[in-house]
Amino acid sequence: MPELPEVETVKNGLQDLCNTKIQQIIIRFPRLRYPLSQEELNQACGQMIKQITRRAKYLIFHLEHGYIICHLGMSGRLTLYKEAPEILKHDHVDIVSGEFTLRYNDPRRFGCIIYVKELENNQILGKLGPEPLESEFTEKYLFNKIKTRKTPIKQLIMDNAIVVGVGNIYACESLFLSNISPLRLGNDITNEECVTLVTNIQKVLTEAIAAGGSSLRDYKNANGELGYFQQQHNVYGRANQECRSCKTKIEEIRLGQRNSFYCPNCQK
């Protein structure tokens, strides 16, 4: 699944769409996470795209009188073309704007594209926690959120109600740099460890954005290019390989229905 750095990279690659007018939205397959509505999306036609932002793992197209919200789901991909190529399997939606065609491809169909008139009190965005790279996400905030929780810390930092966008890859990598086992419970994490963890979450996400994200399975950016942060992974996807710090073999466990990777020697 594309995580925060991947979605941020896609957002950055779509900025040429700003100040172009949506001419047409073509739906070829309507059954995504939420059924696509041609009538609903047609409300965006004729409107200028004023700005494209990201909230958690959602892309938000700010129009003159509303918003298009897009989530890439497990395998979704947005690619921006000046001359759109032949339509391929799983090319479900085209947004034609100015001289560009933005094509949405999604083999697993867990993504969404919806049109809304307001963002405030929106049922999708309304319950999200703070952004990890913004000032509200501090060690004090994190400590207060987890200090009574008997849930593994990895699941807590992946909880979008606590902090958004820290997906599986970057949770594993941040915990490794912080020398914290993913199995430790929230109420066992000290304030000092929260200082380290917040710092490393921000470090890992910033470096991943700079590297264009991690290309695992389906992910490519809006120009069809791969990210390369996976070359810097310390633990994620490295089960049974030597830890880069201590040479202990990286272990893989199942935690919260997700594969988790950690060094049992470095992470306590």
What would the keywords be for this entry?
four-stranded antiparallel β-sheet; 268 residues; single chain; N-terminal domain of MutM-like DNA repair proteins; Helicase, Ruva Protein, domain 3; 2 domains; alpha+beta
Average pLDDT number: 92
Give the helix proportion (percent range): 10-25%
* Count of β-strands: 10
Strand order of the largest sheet: 1-6-7-5
* Count of helical regions: 6
How is the CATH topology of the largest domain named? Answer: Helicase, Ruva Protein, domain 3
Radius of gyration over all CA atoms, rounded: 20 Å
The termini sit apart by 28 Å
Largest sheet: 4 strands, antiparallel
Task: Determine the strand fraction and express it as a percent band.
Answer: 15-25%
Give the overall silhouette: elongated
What is the CATH architecture descriptor of the largest domain? Orthogonal Bundle
| Helix-strand pattern | HEHEEEEEEEHHHHEE
Q: What structural class results from the helix and strand content? A: alpha+beta
Unreliable residue stretches: none
Number of domains: 2
